[in-house]
Write a structure and sequence with these properties.
TIM Barrel; 43% helix; binds zinc ion
């Protein structure tokens, strides 16, 4: 499968053709054949917004999981919150993407308490309830713990990880041929994780995607500096800073 918006749209069409109804983590039992579409926002909120708009255009609702403790974006900033609220306004759900590596090792009860704390922070930022969680690069222990989190659905719980057929495009690579598995009709329950970061209008190599993201940070930082210092161009000229060919 190509990593393009068109290919993702075709995937949604294929799911429908094969009789799958798009459900979420609470409604999946309403359909004999269901698919849960999940997106972990590991790096870039803007890409997630683009993807959320695409999904709204094709009439599907999914869940976007947001990190609180990342250096890539700040979910508490005004711009980030506008993006997250926009995703919600399109009919999608915002869940918590939890990074256990942001904390020292802890017993499962401690992990649960940390998740609930982050849940409360995210819910208060958004002003809405947050009732789902997914794990960012979970350890084997966390995967096997089948954590029960009061008031929350754990997308890495036994139900969604074992009773569903789980398919993921992590590191821009499907571990299994996703389209063939959908066509096979072998599974009544699918749990599909995609990362919006990898998808664009045209298929492109991984180095292009990652390279553009890294370079764009430079411009973003310049614009942030502009808002925080008087007459930045007198100190640093914009055109001297950026060379798109680097
Ligand atoms: Zn992640």
């Amino acid at each position: 499968m190509e990593f393009t918006y068109r290919a993702y749209e075709a995937l949604v069409v294929l799911l429908r053709e094969q009789g799958y109804t798009v459900q979420n983590y609470r409604t999946w039992e309403d359909s004999a054949r269901c698919v849960i579409l999940r997106h972990d926002i590991d790096t870039d909120l803007a890409q997630a917004v683009r993807f959320a708009e695409l999904e709204a255009e094709v009439g599907v609702r999914s869940t976007y999981f947001v990190l609180l403790r990342t250096d890539f974006y700040n979910p508490a900033s005004k711009q980030s919150l506008e993006k997250l609220r926009h995703i919600q306004a399109l009919g999608h759900e915002i869940g918590l993407h939890f990074d256990e590596k942001a904390y020292p090792d802890g017993a499962p009860e401690e992990t649960v308490a940390r998740i609930l704390h982050e849940r409360d922070v995210l819910a208060s930022l958004l002003g809405t309830a947050v009732t789902t969680v997914s794990m960012h690069r979970p350890s084997k222990e966390t995967l096997e713990a089948d954590l029960k989190i009061p008031g929350m659905v754990n997308s890495y719980g036994k139900t969604f990880f074992h009773d569903f057929k789980y398919l993921s495009d992590s590191r821009r690579r499907w571990r299994e041929p996703v389209e063939e598995i959908i066509k096979s009709g072998e599974y009544d329950r699918l749990h599909i994780l995609t990362h919006a970061f990898w998808y664009h209008e045209k298929d492109e190599p991984i180095e292009t995607t990652v390279g553009r993201f890294v370079r764009s940070a430079n411009r973003e930082r310049y614009m942030q500096m502009m808002e925080n210092i008087t007459n930045l161009p007198a100190i640093l000229k914009e055109d001297e800073l950026f060379n798109e060919n680097l």
